[in-house]
Design a protein that fits this description.
The chain is mostly helical and 87 residues long. The chain has helices at residues 5-32, 37-86. The two termini are 35 Å apart.
Length: 87
């Protein structure tokens, strides 16, 4: 099944987001390690949780798009059924 431009953009953004989470967590840890291991772990965990929430948000966009497409198909089928019964 071919993806439309919307799904390609969302897929690209999801992949980029995972890369940002991985490299960002490492970067945040390296920055905050000077303040102590506990603060570095806390800052890294906080960054990771916020980033994962944003990834979840992107994923929900994709799910909503699929739900909308499925609803359109069901509406079309129901309209055909209704048209046949009214005849």
């Amino acid at each position: 099944m071919q993806k439309d431009i919307y799904q390609r953009i969302i897929s690209f953004l999801l992949g980029a987001s995972w890369a940002i989470v991985l490299f960002g967590a490492l970067f945040i840890f390296k920055i905050f390690i000077a303040f102590g291991i506990a603060i570095a772990l806390f800052a890294t965990l906080l960054f990771t949780i916020i980033s994962l929430f944003l990834i979840l948000l992107l994923d929900s966009f994709e799910v909503r798009k699929c739900t909308l497409e499925e609803s359109k198909k069901q509406t079309e089928l129901l309209e055909k059924i209704y048209a046949k019964e009214c005849e």
